């Protein structure tokens, strides 16, 4: 193995057109490019800051939240936003719900579950989908046929309905919801990964890796997979938003998160009965869902633009005239 | 066909249908009785064959909840869902195409940026929340339309608007990128050189050729429209298939669940068939493939 590595530079470098150019080290590094691009695109910056603040606030909800999310009081039922607390403490900034519980605190604690469900299900479905996609695209043959048959089957059917059916059979709860969300979306990654792998496996660098005796596993994970990371990151970022929306829909229908646990979707379902009397109960959880998913979308658009060499220049050198 | 098998095995293998149909507190004897009466103690291949032959006759068994054939209930509910879907597309398609054209005419302009952010917001909004907001503003505060129910234009406008936002976002983005691709082609330069007005160039040449990717997406959107219909119908009390499926799940009514799921699947297949047929009408090249 060490012999191969030692021989590698002399094998590869002559083919690399950038190789002997002296200024190569002076070119901006990848991290620097991303940083400059982020400062250039204000919208993406705002989205990133919003998401970081939100994640921080929900993770440390125990410290940040002004009130106990479970403690209510009949005197405090459905108080509008900015109601002063009786004991002179922090006012109920976003009002209280039907049981007199502080909505802001509940949003933060509920956000924990919404965000956790979104990220966890993306990690699970992404891992499964990428592995199956790698296998299908690289080995082809019967394995590919079987995997893609399942992908097509699931693509043709609305994912929310798949989730409803599976939850009906298995019952609900946070981890079941996460698993079900993962089950309904794995095929998105499998399809994208497979199509990308199929183009990369024909490239010269894979042939070269094969020639120096790399195992299939090594080629797949060390040579092909790194090339797939940026399109898959874009996809995964978008999917977190989709998952949060689906979780909200499932909880809204009463098949997702169950009380006493809470999520933004469930809070909307609970507030639905008070549309006529307490507008804040149906407004704020939805605003948070919207802002979270919008931020994820903006960030994904930005990642796509920055990782694509064709559009990247736009961030690095501001265009003189407005040209596309 | 594959879907039929999956529906059968998901409902028959993963859980015990008899137990799923009864309340959790049912005794073992009750479960056993129901198993016997539904023929669930037969070998699986016998059950599957019975399921397939019954299905071929359009018969999925009687609804346990309403004691009438499940398919009849679904047939009753189908028009309401189709009505809602049509109304939604009626709002979504013209708006999405207009927005897409506006942003394709001047890429990276202020108008383009606004449309992009709007369409991203459209994709990011929980449709049932938008529905709640629309109820709050137009039904509760302004009292222009009723909050829920089934009927004419005043009833369908809110649910359709709530359902339309996401397709508008998705379709307008594809219209934009498909139009931009076409605008850079040489035939557009030719058309302009001929002295055709910009309107004719955009609507007659560019949009027409951009129609294929737009149409493909509309097929996908029709499927996800049914996704949204489940939630929106529940929110607005719209008597369609979506709310029926939720009710069937709540009542643990297996035949009714199977009937509504299969009907939804058939609708999606039909929409995709229509899209395929539409290709050949719009683009003559497809016909000879």
Give the key terms.
heterodimer, A: 324 residues, mainly alpha, 13 helices, B: 289 residues, 14 helices
- Can you tell me the overall shape of chain B? elongated
Helical proportion of chain B, percent range: over 70%
Derived from helix and strand composition plus strand pairing, the structural class of chain A reads mainly alpha
Largest interface: A-B, 44 and 50 residues
Q: Which class do the helix and strand fractions of chain B yield?
A: mainly alpha
- Low-pLDDT runs of 5+ residues of chain A are 7-15, 318-324
Q: What overall form of chain A do the CA principal axes indicate?
A: globular
Following the backbone from N to C, one meets helices and strands of chain A in this order, namely HHHHHHHHHHHHH
Terminus-to-terminus distance of chain A? 48 Å
In what range is the share of β-strand residues of chain A? under 5%
Précis, in short:
The complex is a heterodimer of chains A (324) and B (289). Chain A has 324 residues and is an all-alpha fold.
General description of the model:
The complex is a heterodimer of chains A (324) and B (289). By secondary structure, chain A is mainly alpha-helical. Helices cover 69% and strands 0% of the residues of chain A. In chain A, helix 3 packs across helix 5. The radius of gyration of chain A is 25 Å and the shape is globular. With 289 residues, chain B is mainly alpha-helical. Helix content of chain B is 78%, strand content 0%. Chain B contains 14 helices and no strands. Chain B has helices spanning 2-12, 17-21, 28-38, 44-56, 70-105, 110-124, 127-141, 153-183, 186-193, 198-209, 211-236, 241-250, 254-282, 284-287. In chain B, helix 6 packs across helix 8 (153-183). Chain B starts with a helix and ends with a helix. At the A-B interface, helix 7, helix 10 and helix 12 of A face helix 1, helix 6, helix 7, helix 11 and helix 12 of B.
């Amino acid at each position: 193995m060490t012999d191969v590595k030692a021989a590698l530079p002399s094998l590869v470098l002559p083919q690399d057109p950038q190789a002997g150019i002296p200024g190569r080290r002076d070119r901006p590094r990848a991290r620097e490019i991303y940083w400059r691009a982020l400062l250039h695109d204000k919208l993406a910056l705002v989205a990133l800051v919003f998401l970081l603040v939100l994640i921080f606030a929900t993770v440390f909800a125990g410290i940040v939240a002004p009130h106990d999310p479970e403690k209510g009081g009949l005197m405090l039922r459905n108080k509008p936003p900015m109601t002063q607390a009786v004991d002179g403490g922090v006012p109920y900034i976003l009002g209280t719900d039907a049981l007199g519980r502080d909505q802001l605190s509940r949003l933060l604690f509920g956000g924990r579950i919404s965000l956790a469900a979104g990220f966890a299900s993306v990690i699970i479905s992404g891992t499964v989908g990428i592995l199956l996609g790698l296998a299908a695209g690289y080995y082809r043959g019967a394995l590919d046929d079987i995997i893609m048959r399942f992908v097509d089957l699931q693509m043709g059917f609305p994912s929310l309905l798949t989730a409803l059916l599976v939850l009906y059979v298995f019952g609900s709860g946070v981890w079941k919801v996460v698993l079900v969300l993962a089950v309904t979306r794995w095929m998105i990654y499998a399809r994208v990964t497979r199509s990308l792998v199929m183009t990369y496996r024909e490239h010269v660098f894979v042939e070269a890796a094969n020639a120096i005796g790399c195992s299939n596993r090594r080629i797949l994970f060390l040579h092909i997979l790194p090339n797939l990371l940026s399109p898959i990151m874009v996809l995964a970022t978008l999917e977190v938003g989709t998952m949060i929306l689906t979780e909200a829909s499932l909880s809204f229908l009463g098949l997702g998160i169950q009380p006493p646990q809470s999520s933004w979707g469930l809070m909307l379902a609970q507030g639905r009965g008070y549309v006529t009397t307490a507008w804040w109960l149906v407004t704020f959880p939805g605003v948070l869902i919207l802002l979270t998913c919008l931020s994820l979308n903006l960030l994904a658009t930005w990642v796509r633009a920055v990782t694509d060499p064709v559009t990247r220049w736009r961030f690095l050198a501001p265009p003189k005239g407005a040209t596309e | 066909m594959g879907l039929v098998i999956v529906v059968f095995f998901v409902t028959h293998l993963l859980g015990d249908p008899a137990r799923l149909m009864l309340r959790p507190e049912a005794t073992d004897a009750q479960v056993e009785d129901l198993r016997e009466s539904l023929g669930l103690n037969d070998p699986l291949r016998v059950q599957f064959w019975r399921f397939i032959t019954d299905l071929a006759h359009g018969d999925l068994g009687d609804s346990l909840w309403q004691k009438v054939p499940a398919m009849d209930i679904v047939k009753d509910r189908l028009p309401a869902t189709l009505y809602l879907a049509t109304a939604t597309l009626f709002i979504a398609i013209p708006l999405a195409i207009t927005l897409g054209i506006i942003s394709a005419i001047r890429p990276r302009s202020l108008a383009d940026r606004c449309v992009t952010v709007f369409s991203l917001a459209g994709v990011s909004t929980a449709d049932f929340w938008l529905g709640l907001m629309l109820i709050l503003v137009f039904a509760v505060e302004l009292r222009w339309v009723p909050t829920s129910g089934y009927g004419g234009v005043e009833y369908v406008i809110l649910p359709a608007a709530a359902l339309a936002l996401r397709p508008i976002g998705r379709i307008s983005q594809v219209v934009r990128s498909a139009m931009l691709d076409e605008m850079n082609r040489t035939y557009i330069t030719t058309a302009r050189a001929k002295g055709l007005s910009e309107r004719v160039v955009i609507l007659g040449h560019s949009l027409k050729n951009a129609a294929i990717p737009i149409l493909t997406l509309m097929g996908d959107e029709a499927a996800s429209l049914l996704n949204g219909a489940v939630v929106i119908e529940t929110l607005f009390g719209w008597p369609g298939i979506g709310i029926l499926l939720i009710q069937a799940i709540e009542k643990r009514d297996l035949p009714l669940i199977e009937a509504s799921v299969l009907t939804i699947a058939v609708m999606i297949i039909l929409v995709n068939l229509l899209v395929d047929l539409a290709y050949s009408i719009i683009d003559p090249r497809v016909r000879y493939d």
